[in-house]
Protein backbone atom coordinates (compact mmCIF):
# COMPACT_ATOMS: atom_id res chain seq x y z
CA UNK A 1 0.00 0.00 0.00
CA UNK A 2 2.93 2.36 0.59
CA UNK A 3 3.80 2.50 -3.12
CA UNK A 4 0.42 1.75 -4.68
CA UNK A 5 2.14 -0.95 -6.73
CA UNK A 6 0.47 -4.30 -7.34
CA UNK A 7 2.70 -7.29 -7.94
CA UNK A 8 1.40 -10.57 -9.34
CA UNK A 9 3.48 -13.65 -8.61
CA UNK A 10 3.16 -17.27 -9.66
CA UNK A 11 2.04 -19.44 -6.77
CA UNK A 12 5.11 -21.18 -5.33
CA UNK A 13 5.12 -24.94 -5.79
CA UNK A 14 6.13 -25.43 -2.15
CA UNK A 15 2.70 -24.08 -1.13
CA UNK A 16 0.81 -26.24 -3.65
CA UNK A 17 -1.38 -28.09 -1.15
CA UNK A 18 -1.79 -25.18 1.26
CA UNK A 19 -4.94 -23.10 1.33
CA UNK A 20 -6.93 -20.98 3.75
CA UNK A 21 -5.59 -20.94 7.29
CA UNK A 22 -2.60 -23.23 6.60
CA UNK A 23 -1.49 -20.96 3.77
CA UNK A 24 -1.86 -17.68 5.66
CA UNK A 25 0.02 -19.18 8.63
CA UNK A 26 2.88 -20.29 6.38
CA UNK A 27 3.08 -16.98 4.56
CA UNK A 28 3.03 -15.09 7.85
CA UNK A 29 5.94 -17.10 9.22
CA UNK A 30 7.93 -16.97 5.98
CA UNK A 31 7.42 -13.29 5.13
CA UNK A 32 6.58 -11.30 8.25
CA UNK A 33 8.92 -10.45 11.12
CA UNK A 34 7.29 -11.99 14.23
CA UNK A 35 8.60 -9.05 16.27
CA UNK A 36 6.98 -6.35 14.14
CA UNK A 37 4.19 -4.20 15.52
CA UNK A 38 0.85 -5.60 14.31
CA UNK A 39 -0.32 -2.21 13.04
CA UNK A 40 2.99 -1.15 11.50
CA UNK A 41 3.79 -0.97 7.78
CA UNK A 42 6.05 -4.01 8.27
CA UNK A 43 3.09 -6.19 9.21
CA UNK A 44 1.26 -8.00 6.39
CA UNK A 45 -2.40 -8.93 6.01
CA UNK A 46 -3.00 -12.14 4.03
CA UNK A 47 -6.32 -13.16 2.51
CA UNK A 48 -6.72 -16.66 1.08
CA UNK A 49 -9.59 -18.88 -0.06
CA UNK A 50 -9.42 -22.54 0.90
CA UNK A 51 -8.02 -25.38 -1.17
CA UNK A 52 -11.54 -26.21 -2.37
CA UNK A 53 -12.62 -22.63 -3.05
CA UNK A 54 -14.58 -22.06 -6.23
CA UNK A 55 -15.75 -25.68 -6.40
CA UNK A 56 -19.17 -27.29 -5.97
CA UNK A 57 -18.37 -28.75 -2.55
CA UNK A 58 -20.93 -27.36 -0.12
CA UNK A 59 -19.63 -24.50 2.09
CA UNK A 60 -16.28 -24.47 0.25
CA UNK A 61 -16.27 -20.69 -0.14
CA UNK A 62 -14.91 -19.72 3.26
CA UNK A 63 -11.96 -17.32 3.42
CA UNK A 64 -9.03 -16.93 5.81
CA UNK A 65 -7.66 -13.55 6.91
CA UNK A 66 -4.18 -14.15 8.38
CA UNK A 67 -2.13 -11.55 10.29
CA UNK A 68 -0.21 -10.74 13.43
CA UNK A 69 -2.95 -9.93 15.90
CA UNK A 70 -3.03 -6.61 17.77
CA UNK A 71 -4.82 -8.50 20.56
CA UNK A 72 -2.71 -11.64 20.95
CA UNK A 73 0.56 -10.44 19.47
CA UNK A 74 0.80 -13.77 17.68
CA UNK A 75 -0.27 -15.62 14.56
CA UNK A 76 -4.00 -15.17 13.95
CA UNK A 77 -6.56 -16.35 11.44
CA UNK A 78 -10.06 -14.93 11.19
CA UNK A 79 -12.33 -17.19 9.16
CA UNK A 80 -15.38 -15.90 7.31
CA UNK A 81 -18.17 -17.05 5.01
CA UNK A 82 -19.85 -14.76 2.54
CA UNK A 83 -19.24 -14.36 -1.16
CA UNK A 84 -15.62 -13.34 -1.52
CA UNK A 85 -13.89 -16.72 -1.17
CA UNK A 86 -15.46 -18.37 -4.21
CA UNK A 87 -14.88 -15.25 -6.31
CA UNK A 88 -11.17 -15.09 -5.48
CA UNK A 89 -10.77 -18.79 -6.25
CA UNK A 90 -12.60 -18.52 -9.58
CA UNK A 91 -10.19 -15.75 -10.56
CA UNK A 92 -7.30 -18.11 -9.87
CA UNK A 93 -6.11 -16.16 -6.83
CA UNK A 94 -4.60 -18.31 -4.11
CA UNK A 95 -3.69 -15.46 -1.77
CA UNK A 96 -3.52 -11.68 -1.45
CA UNK A 97 -0.74 -10.05 0.57
CA UNK A 98 -1.33 -6.45 1.68
CA UNK A 99 1.83 -4.70 2.85
CA UNK A 100 2.90 -1.21 3.91
CA UNK A 101 0.40 1.57 4.51
CA UNK A 102 -1.27 4.09 2.22
CA UNK A 103 0.70 7.36 2.37
CA UNK A 104 -2.24 9.63 1.66
CA UNK A 105 -5.79 8.91 2.78
CA UNK A 106 -7.94 5.85 2.19
CA UNK A 107 -7.61 3.45 -0.73
CA UNK A 108 -9.63 0.64 -2.29
CA UNK A 109 -8.57 -2.50 -4.11
CA UNK A 110 -10.62 -3.75 -7.08
CA UNK A 111 -9.97 -7.21 -8.52
CA UNK A 112 -11.45 -8.80 -11.65
CA UNK A 113 -10.36 -10.87 -14.64
CA UNK A 114 -8.30 -7.94 -15.93
CA UNK A 115 -6.18 -7.82 -12.79
CA UNK A 116 -6.12 -5.61 -9.73
CA UNK A 117 -6.26 -1.83 -9.33
CA UNK A 118 -5.63 0.36 -6.28
CA UNK A 119 -7.45 3.69 -6.31
CA UNK A 120 -8.36 6.54 -4.01
CA UNK A 121 -11.28 5.88 -1.69
CA UNK A 122 -11.69 9.23 0.03
CA UNK A 123 -15.38 9.13 -0.93
CA UNK A 124 -15.78 6.01 1.23
CA UNK A 125 -14.09 7.40 4.34
CA UNK A 126 -16.24 7.39 7.46
CA UNK A 127 -18.97 5.26 5.94
CA UNK A 128 -20.42 2.30 7.76
CA UNK A 129 -20.60 -1.20 6.39
CA UNK A 130 -24.27 -1.35 5.38
CA UNK A 131 -23.90 1.77 3.27
CA UNK A 132 -20.58 0.58 1.87
CA UNK A 133 -21.87 -2.77 0.65
CA UNK A 134 -24.93 -1.14 -0.92
CA UNK A 135 -22.67 1.27 -2.82
CA UNK A 136 -19.89 -1.16 -3.72
CA UNK A 137 -21.92 -4.24 -4.58
CA UNK A 138 -25.53 -3.12 -5.01
CA UNK A 139 -26.98 -4.32 -8.31
CA UNK A 140 -23.74 -6.21 -9.06
CA UNK A 141 -24.49 -8.78 -6.35
CA UNK A 142 -24.63 -11.65 -8.83
CA UNK A 143 -20.94 -11.27 -9.65
CA UNK A 144 -19.35 -9.00 -7.03
CA UNK A 145 -18.55 -9.08 -3.33
CA UNK A 146 -16.77 -6.74 -0.97
CA UNK A 147 -14.64 -6.87 2.15
CA UNK A 148 -14.75 -3.59 4.07
CA UNK A 149 -13.93 -1.92 7.34
CA UNK A 150 -16.28 0.34 9.23
CA UNK A 151 -15.41 3.24 11.56
CA UNK A 152 -13.81 0.87 14.10
CA UNK A 153 -11.33 -0.33 11.50
CA UNK A 154 -10.58 3.23 10.39
CA UNK A 155 -9.75 4.05 14.01
CA UNK A 156 -7.53 0.93 14.13
CA UNK A 157 -9.33 -0.40 17.20
CA UNK A 158 -8.12 -3.85 18.17
CA UNK A 159 -11.64 -5.32 18.25
CA UNK A 160 -12.35 -4.23 14.67
CA UNK A 161 -13.58 -6.75 12.11
CA UNK A 162 -13.74 -6.98 8.31
CA UNK A 163 -17.25 -7.20 6.86
CA UNK A 164 -17.82 -9.53 3.89
CA UNK A 165 -20.85 -9.44 1.60
CA UNK A 166 -23.45 -12.14 2.23
CA UNK A 167 -25.66 -13.64 -0.53
CA UNK A 168 -28.28 -10.89 0.04
CA UNK A 169 -25.71 -8.13 -0.41
CA UNK A 170 -25.52 -7.28 3.29
CA UNK A 171 -22.35 -6.97 5.44
CA UNK A 172 -23.36 -9.67 7.91
CA UNK A 173 -20.40 -12.04 7.54
CA UNK A 174 -17.32 -10.94 9.49
CA UNK A 175 -13.71 -11.93 9.70
CA UNK A 176 -13.80 -10.87 13.30
CA UNK A 177 -11.48 -12.49 15.80
CA UNK A 178 -8.09 -11.01 16.64
CA UNK A 179 -8.50 -7.57 15.06
CA UNK A 180 -8.22 -8.00 11.27
CA UNK A 181 -10.18 -4.76 10.80
CA UNK A 182 -7.51 -2.85 12.73
CA UNK A 183 -4.76 -4.37 10.57
CA UNK A 184 -6.65 -3.54 7.36
CA UNK A 185 -7.26 -0.03 8.68
CA UNK A 186 -3.57 0.40 9.47
CA UNK A 187 -2.88 -0.33 5.80
CA UNK A 188 -5.18 2.53 4.80
CA UNK A 189 -7.34 0.04 2.90
CA UNK A 190 -11.03 0.81 3.25
CA UNK A 191 -12.46 -1.77 0.85
CA UNK A 192 -11.70 -4.70 -1.42
CA UNK A 193 -14.15 -5.45 -4.24
CA UNK A 194 -13.90 -8.72 -6.18
CA UNK A 195 -15.80 -9.21 -9.46
CA UNK A 196 -15.67 -12.65 -11.08
CA UNK A 197 -18.26 -11.99 -13.81
CA UNK A 198 -15.86 -13.01 -16.59
CA UNK A 199 -14.35 -15.97 -14.75
CA UNK A 200 -15.38 -19.64 -15.07
CA UNK A 201 -18.33 -20.53 -12.83
CA UNK A 202 -16.38 -23.32 -11.14
CA UNK A 203 -12.80 -24.39 -10.62
CA UNK A 204 -12.33 -27.58 -12.61
CA UNK A 205 -11.05 -30.64 -10.79
CA UNK A 206 -8.31 -32.85 -12.15
CA UNK A 207 -10.77 -35.74 -11.85
CA UNK A 208 -14.15 -34.03 -12.47
CA UNK A 209 -16.31 -37.16 -12.29
CA UNK A 210 -14.65 -38.34 -9.11
CA UNK A 211 -15.04 -34.87 -7.59
CA UNK A 212 -18.70 -34.73 -8.55
CA UNK A 213 -19.30 -38.07 -6.86
CA UNK A 214 -17.50 -36.80 -3.78
CA UNK A 215 -19.75 -33.71 -3.74
CA UNK A 216 -22.91 -35.81 -3.97
CA UNK A 217 -21.85 -38.28 -1.28
CA UNK A 218 -20.66 -35.58 1.10
CA UNK A 219 -23.79 -33.44 0.63
CA UNK A 220 -26.01 -36.40 1.51
CA UNK A 221 -23.93 -37.10 4.61
CA UNK A 222 -24.23 -33.47 5.69
CA UNK A 223 -27.98 -33.29 5.16
CA UNK A 224 -28.58 -36.61 6.95
CA UNK A 225 -26.68 -35.47 10.07
CA UNK A 226 -29.13 -34.66 12.93
CA UNK A 227 -26.74 -31.98 14.17
CA UNK A 228 -26.90 -30.23 10.81
CA UNK A 229 -30.68 -30.55 10.69
CA UNK A 230 -30.97 -28.86 14.08
CA UNK A 231 -28.55 -26.10 13.08
CA UNK A 232 -30.51 -25.53 9.88
CA UNK A 233 -33.69 -25.14 11.94
CA UNK A 234 -32.49 -22.90 14.78
CA UNK A 235 -29.00 -21.73 13.85
CA UNK A 236 -26.34 -21.81 16.55
CA UNK A 237 -28.86 -20.11 18.84
CA UNK A 238 -30.41 -23.56 19.18
CA UNK A 239 -27.82 -24.52 21.83
CA UNK A 240 -28.88 -21.89 24.37
CA UNK A 241 -31.39 -24.06 26.20
CA UNK A 242 -28.78 -26.84 26.43
CA UNK A 243 -25.92 -24.69 27.73
CA UNK A 244 -28.22 -22.99 30.27
CA UNK A 245 -28.95 -26.25 32.08
CA UNK A 246 -27.84 -26.46 35.71
CA UNK A 247 -25.55 -29.41 34.97
CA UNK A 248 -23.86 -27.65 32.01
CA UNK A 249 -23.71 -23.93 32.93
CA UNK A 250 -22.04 -22.65 29.78
CA UNK A 251 -24.07 -19.50 29.25
CA UNK A 252 -21.91 -16.56 30.42
CA UNK A 253 -23.75 -14.21 32.78
CA UNK A 254 -22.51 -11.07 34.56
CA UNK A 255 -19.02 -11.03 33.03
CA UNK A 256 -18.63 -14.82 33.18
CA UNK A 257 -19.30 -14.93 36.94
CA UNK A 258 -22.26 -17.25 36.42
CA UNK A 259 -22.87 -19.98 33.88
CA UNK A 260 -26.65 -20.01 33.98
CA UNK A 261 -29.34 -17.33 33.61
CA UNK A 262 -32.97 -17.49 34.67
CA UNK A 263 -34.94 -19.93 32.55
CA UNK A 264 -37.29 -17.14 31.43
CA UNK A 265 -34.49 -14.75 30.41
CA UNK A 266 -32.51 -17.45 28.59
CA UNK A 267 -35.63 -18.59 26.74
CA UNK A 268 -35.97 -15.07 25.31
CA UNK A 269 -32.59 -15.56 23.59
CA UNK A 270 -33.12 -19.13 22.43
CA UNK A 271 -33.24 -20.38 18.87
CA UNK A 272 -36.72 -21.75 19.51
CA UNK A 273 -37.97 -18.29 20.54
CA UNK A 274 -36.27 -16.67 17.56
CA UNK A 275 -37.81 -19.24 15.20
CA UNK A 276 -41.27 -18.42 16.60
CA UNK A 277 -40.63 -14.72 16.03
CA UNK A 278 -39.51 -15.55 12.51
CA UNK A 279 -42.84 -17.18 11.72
CA UNK A 280 -44.60 -14.00 12.78
CA UNK A 281 -42.25 -11.52 11.10
CA UNK A 282 -41.16 -13.20 7.88
CA UNK A 283 -37.84 -14.45 9.20
CA UNK A 284 -36.15 -17.48 7.71
CA UNK A 285 -32.93 -19.47 7.58
CA UNK A 286 -30.42 -18.50 4.93
CA UNK A 287 -27.00 -19.66 3.70
CA UNK A 288 -24.06 -17.42 4.52
CA UNK A 289 -22.49 -18.18 1.13
CA UNK A 290 -23.56 -19.46 -2.26
CA UNK A 291 -23.70 -23.24 -2.40
CA UNK A 292 -24.30 -23.86 1.31
CA UNK A 293 -26.97 -26.48 2.00
CA UNK A 294 -26.98 -26.05 5.79
CA UNK A 295 -28.57 -22.57 5.96
CA UNK A 296 -27.73 -21.70 9.56
CA UNK A 297 -27.91 -17.89 9.21
CA UNK A 298 -30.98 -16.46 10.96
CA UNK A 299 -32.65 -13.63 9.05
CA UNK A 300 -34.05 -11.65 11.98
CA UNK A 301 -36.71 -9.00 11.39
CA UNK A 302 -38.21 -6.45 13.77
CA UNK A 303 -41.95 -6.49 14.64
CA UNK A 304 -42.66 -4.46 11.48
CA UNK A 305 -41.03 -7.14 9.32
CA UNK A 306 -37.96 -4.97 8.59
CA UNK A 307 -34.51 -6.57 8.42
CA UNK A 308 -32.31 -6.16 11.50
CA UNK A 309 -29.56 -8.76 11.12
CA UNK A 310 -28.73 -12.08 9.49
CA UNK A 311 -26.11 -13.16 12.00
CA UNK A 312 -27.83 -13.69 15.32
CA UNK A 313 -25.56 -16.47 16.52
CA UNK A 314 -25.05 -18.15 19.88
CA UNK A 315 -21.80 -16.35 20.66
CA UNK A 316 -23.38 -12.97 19.95
CA UNK A 317 -26.55 -13.73 21.94
CA UNK A 318 -24.40 -14.90 24.86
CA UNK A 319 -21.70 -12.22 24.94
CA UNK A 320 -23.89 -9.22 24.05
CA UNK A 321 -26.91 -10.71 25.80
CA UNK A 322 -26.69 -12.82 28.94
CA UNK A 323 -23.11 -11.79 29.70
CA UNK A 324 -24.30 -8.18 29.99
CA UNK A 325 -27.73 -9.18 31.39
CA UNK A 326 -29.37 -7.77 28.26
CA UNK A 327 -32.38 -9.29 26.57
CA UNK A 328 -34.60 -10.27 24.86
CA UNK A 329 -33.45 -11.31 21.37
CA UNK A 330 -34.77 -8.08 19.82
CA UNK A 331 -32.43 -6.02 22.00
CA UNK A 332 -29.39 -8.17 21.20
CA UNK A 333 -30.25 -8.15 17.50
CA UNK A 334 -30.05 -4.35 17.46
CA UNK A 335 -26.61 -4.49 19.11
CA UNK A 336 -25.51 -7.13 16.62
CA UNK A 337 -26.57 -4.97 13.67
CA UNK A 338 -24.61 -2.04 15.09
CA UNK A 339 -21.51 -4.20 15.50
CA UNK A 340 -21.83 -5.33 11.87
CA UNK A 341 -22.31 -1.75 10.74
CA UNK A 342 -19.48 -0.21 12.79
CA UNK A 343 -17.27 -3.27 12.15
CA UNK A 344 -16.72 -5.02 15.48
CA UNK A 345 -16.17 -8.56 16.76
CA UNK A 346 -19.23 -9.26 18.90
CA UNK A 347 -17.30 -11.69 21.10
CA UNK A 348 -14.49 -9.27 21.89
CA UNK A 349 -16.84 -6.31 22.38
CA UNK A 350 -19.21 -8.37 24.53
CA UNK A 351 -16.32 -9.24 26.83
CA UNK A 352 -14.99 -5.67 26.87
CA UNK A 353 -18.45 -4.33 27.72
CA UNK A 354 -18.78 -6.89 30.52
CA UNK A 355 -15.48 -5.71 31.98
CA UNK A 356 -16.59 -2.07 31.61
CA UNK A 357 -19.82 -2.86 33.46
CA UNK A 358 -17.84 -4.54 36.22
CA UNK A 359 -15.61 -1.46 36.42
CA UNK A 360 -18.58 0.87 36.75
CA UNK A 361 -18.36 2.38 33.27
CA UNK A 362 -22.01 1.52 32.65
CA UNK A 363 -24.76 -0.38 34.46
CA UNK A 364 -25.58 -4.05 34.07
CA UNK A 365 -28.41 -4.58 31.63
CA UNK A 366 -28.38 -0.98 30.40
CA UNK A 367 -29.29 -1.57 26.76
CA UNK A 368 -29.70 2.09 25.86
CA UNK A 369 -26.24 3.06 27.10
CA UNK A 370 -24.68 -0.06 25.58
CA UNK A 371 -26.30 0.80 22.26
CA UNK A 372 -25.06 4.39 22.30
CA UNK A 373 -21.59 3.29 23.34
CA UNK A 374 -21.31 1.20 20.15
CA UNK A 375 -23.26 3.57 17.89
CA UNK A 376 -21.67 6.81 19.03
CA UNK A 377 -18.66 6.33 21.30
CA UNK A 378 -16.88 3.57 19.40
CA UNK A 379 -17.96 4.77 15.96
CA UNK A 380 -16.83 8.32 16.68
CA UNK A 381 -13.75 7.39 18.68
CA UNK A 382 -14.52 9.05 21.99
CA UNK A 383 -12.21 8.31 24.90
CA UNK A 384 -14.55 5.62 26.26
CA UNK A 385 -15.17 4.29 22.76
CA UNK A 386 -11.46 3.80 22.17
CA UNK A 387 -11.08 2.05 25.52
CA UNK A 388 -13.84 -0.49 24.92
CA UNK A 389 -13.10 -0.73 21.18
CA UNK A 390 -9.58 -1.89 21.92
CA UNK A 391 -10.85 -5.02 23.53
CA UNK A 392 -11.13 -6.94 26.76
CA UNK A 393 -7.63 -6.65 28.19
CA UNK A 394 -7.29 -2.96 27.30
CA UNK A 395 -10.61 -2.21 28.98
CA UNK A 396 -9.70 -4.22 32.06
CA UNK A 397 -6.38 -2.40 32.41
CA UNK A 398 -8.17 0.95 32.18
CA UNK A 399 -10.54 0.04 35.03
CA UNK A 400 -7.87 -1.70 37.11
CA UNK A 401 -9.61 -5.07 36.85
CA UNK A 402 -7.42 -8.17 37.19
CA UNK A 403 -10.16 -10.73 36.67
CA UNK A 404 -9.91 -10.68 32.88
CA UNK A 405 -11.93 -13.05 30.63
CA UNK A 406 -9.21 -13.51 28.00
CA UNK A 407 -6.54 -15.97 26.89
CA UNK A 408 -3.46 -14.75 25.06
CA UNK A 409 -5.08 -11.31 25.03
CA UNK A 410 -8.28 -12.42 23.27
CA UNK A 411 -11.72 -12.37 24.90
CA UNK A 412 -13.36 -15.66 25.92
CA UNK A 413 -16.06 -17.23 23.76
CA UNK A 414 -19.28 -18.34 25.42
CA UNK A 415 -18.28 -21.98 25.98
CA UNK A 416 -17.43 -22.29 29.67
CA UNK A 417 -14.06 -23.95 30.47
CA UNK A 418 -14.94 -24.68 34.09
CA UNK A 419 -17.64 -27.14 33.08
CA UNK A 420 -16.68 -27.97 29.48
CA UNK A 421 -13.06 -28.52 30.37
CA UNK A 422 -12.06 -29.69 26.92
CA UNK A 423 -12.85 -26.18 25.69
CA UNK A 424 -10.47 -24.85 28.30
CA UNK A 425 -7.72 -27.05 26.87
CA UNK A 426 -8.40 -25.65 23.40
CA UNK A 427 -8.40 -22.04 24.62
CA UNK A 428 -5.12 -22.57 26.45
CA UNK A 429 -3.21 -24.59 23.87
CA UNK A 430 -4.44 -23.25 20.54
CA UNK A 431 -1.99 -20.77 19.01
CA UNK A 432 -5.11 -18.73 18.20
CA UNK A 433 -5.84 -17.92 21.85
CA UNK A 434 -9.39 -18.09 23.21
CA UNK A 435 -11.21 -19.27 20.10
CA UNK A 436 -13.98 -21.86 20.25
CA UNK A 437 -13.71 -22.60 16.53
CA UNK A 438 -10.11 -23.75 16.99
CA UNK A 439 -11.33 -27.06 18.37
CA UNK A 440 -14.75 -27.79 19.88
CA UNK A 441 -14.70 -30.31 22.75
CA UNK A 442 -17.99 -30.41 24.65
CA UNK A 443 -17.66 -33.86 26.21
CA UNK A 444 -18.24 -34.10 29.95
CA UNK A 445 -17.40 -36.71 32.55
CA UNK A 446 -14.31 -37.75 30.61
CA UNK A 447 -10.86 -38.09 32.16
CA UNK A 448 -8.33 -35.30 31.67
CA UNK A 449 -5.97 -37.17 29.35
CA UNK A 450 -8.82 -38.11 27.03
CA UNK A 451 -9.98 -34.50 26.95
CA UNK A 452 -6.48 -33.39 26.02
CA UNK A 453 -6.33 -35.94 23.22
CA UNK A 454 -9.78 -34.89 21.98
CA UNK A 455 -8.77 -31.23 21.97
CA UNK A 456 -5.63 -32.02 19.99
CA UNK A 457 -7.60 -34.03 17.45
CA UNK A 458 -10.33 -31.42 17.09
CA UNK A 459 -7.74 -28.68 16.64
CA UNK A 460 -6.18 -30.70 13.82
CA UNK A 461 -9.56 -31.30 12.19
CA UNK A 462 -10.44 -27.62 12.46
CA UNK A 463 -7.13 -26.61 10.91
CA UNK A 464 -7.82 -29.00 8.03
CA UNK A 465 -11.37 -27.68 7.66
CA UNK A 466 -10.27 -24.03 7.65
CA UNK A 467 -7.50 -24.80 5.19
CA UNK A 468 -9.88 -26.56 2.80
CA UNK A 469 -12.26 -23.60 3.02
CA UNK A 470 -15.12 -25.67 4.43
CA UNK A 471 -17.51 -24.78 7.24
CA UNK A 472 -17.16 -26.52 10.60
CA UNK A 473 -20.90 -27.15 10.66
CA UNK A 474 -20.53 -29.76 7.90
CA UNK A 475 -18.75 -31.87 10.54
CA UNK A 476 -16.34 -32.90 7.77
CA UNK A 477 -14.03 -35.76 8.68
CA UNK A 478 -10.37 -35.84 7.61
CA UNK A 479 -11.34 -38.66 5.24
CA UNK A 480 -13.93 -36.39 3.58
CA UNK A 481 -11.35 -33.66 3.10
CA UNK A 482 -8.81 -36.17 1.78
CA UNK A 483 -11.34 -37.39 -0.78
CA UNK A 484 -11.96 -33.88 -2.05
CA UNK A 485 -8.27 -32.98 -2.25
CA UNK A 486 -7.42 -36.24 -3.97
CA UNK A 487 -10.01 -35.76 -6.73
CA UNK A 488 -9.39 -32.02 -7.08
CA UNK A 489 -5.63 -32.30 -7.48
CA UNK A 490 -5.32 -35.80 -8.90
CA UNK A 491 -3.46 -37.24 -5.93
CA UNK A 492 -3.43 -40.36 -3.85
CA UNK A 493 -4.40 -38.51 -0.69
CA UNK A 494 -5.43 -40.10 2.58
CA UNK A 495 -6.77 -39.14 6.00
CA UNK A 496 -3.26 -39.43 7.40
CA UNK A 497 -2.01 -36.85 4.89
CA UNK A 498 -4.72 -34.40 5.92
CA UNK A 499 -3.86 -34.74 9.60
CA UNK A 500 -0.12 -34.50 8.95
CA UNK A 501 -0.59 -31.29 6.96
CA UNK A 502 -2.81 -29.85 9.69
CA UNK A 503 -0.22 -30.73 12.33
CA UNK A 504 2.50 -28.98 10.36
CA UNK A 505 0.30 -25.90 9.99
CA UNK A 506 -0.42 -25.67 13.72
CA UNK A 507 3.29 -26.06 14.41
CA UNK A 508 3.84 -23.17 11.97
CA UNK A 509 1.53 -20.95 14.03
CA UNK A 510 3.22 -22.04 17.25
CA UNK A 511 6.65 -21.28 15.75
CA UNK A 512 5.54 -17.76 14.84
CA UNK A 513 4.15 -17.25 18.34
CA UNK A 514 7.35 -18.42 20.02
CA UNK A 515 9.40 -16.08 17.84
CA UNK A 516 6.98 -13.28 18.75
CA UNK A 517 7.56 -13.93 22.47
CA UNK A 518 4.50 -16.09 23.17
CA UNK A 519 6.21 -19.07 24.71
CA UNK A 520 4.74 -22.19 26.38
CA UNK A 521 4.06 -20.14 29.52
CA UNK A 522 1.15 -18.50 27.70
CA UNK A 523 -0.58 -21.85 27.17
CA UNK A 524 -2.75 -21.51 30.23
CA UNK A 525 -5.97 -19.90 31.41
CA UNK A 526 -6.54 -16.89 33.68
CA UNK A 527 -6.24 -17.77 37.37
CA UNK A 528 -9.86 -17.02 38.23
CA UNK A 529 -11.02 -19.99 36.14
CA UNK A 530 -8.96 -22.20 38.47
CA UNK A 531 -10.15 -20.42 41.63
CA UNK A 532 -13.82 -19.43 41.17
CA UNK A 533 -16.12 -22.45 41.09
CA UNK A 534 -19.44 -22.75 39.33
CA UNK A 535 -21.97 -24.49 41.57
CA UNK A 536 -23.23 -27.56 39.73
CA UNK A 537 -25.77 -30.03 41.13
CA UNK A 538 -22.99 -32.52 41.85
CA UNK A 539 -20.66 -29.96 43.40
CA UNK A 540 -18.44 -26.98 42.62
CA UNK A 541 -16.52 -27.04 39.34
CA UNK A 542 -13.35 -25.17 38.36
CA UNK A 543 -10.88 -25.65 35.56
CA UNK A 544 -8.61 -27.98 37.49
CA UNK A 545 -6.44 -29.53 34.79
CA UNK A 546 -2.73 -29.04 35.43
CA UNK A 547 -0.48 -27.02 33.13
CA UNK A 548 1.69 -30.13 32.79
CA UNK A 549 -1.15 -31.86 30.98
CA UNK A 550 -1.79 -28.84 28.76
CA UNK A 551 1.89 -28.83 27.81
CA UNK A 552 1.53 -32.33 26.37
CA UNK A 553 -0.95 -31.19 23.71
CA UNK A 554 1.67 -30.02 21.20
CA UNK A 555 4.80 -31.37 22.85
CA UNK A 556 5.93 -33.47 19.89
Question: How would you describe what is shown here?
Answer:
39% of the residues lie in helices and 13% in strands. The strands form five sheets. A six-stranded mixed beta sheet has the order 6-5-10-7-8-9. The protein has a four-stranded antiparallel beta sheet with strand order 3-2-1-4, with helices on both faces. The chain has a three-stranded antiparallel beta sheet with strand order 11-12-13. It has helices at 20-31, 84-90, 129-136, 151-154, 180-186, 208-224, 226-234, 240-243, 263-267, 271-281, 314-319, 329-342, 346-358, 367-380, 383-389, 392-399, 421-429, 448-468, 478-489, 495-515, 528-531, 547-551, and strands spanning 45-49, 63-68, 75-80, 96-98, 107-112, 115-120, 144-148, 162-164, 173-175, 189-195, 284-286, 297-301, 307-309, 406-407, 410-411, 534-536, 539-541. Helix 6 packs antiparallel against helix 19 (478-489), helix 12 (329-342) runs parallel beside helix 14 and helix 18 crosses helix 20 (495-515). It folds into three domains: 13-195, Aldehyde ferredoxin oxidoreductase, N-terminal domain (Aldehyde Ferredoxin Oxidoreductase,  A, domain 1, 4-Layer Sandwich), CATH 3.60.9.10; 229-393, Aldehyde Ferredoxin Oxidoreductase Protein, subunit A, domain 2 (Orthogonal Bundle), CATH 1.10.569.10; 421-551, Aldehyde Ferredoxin Oxidoreductase Protein, subunit A, domain 3 (Orthogonal Bundle).
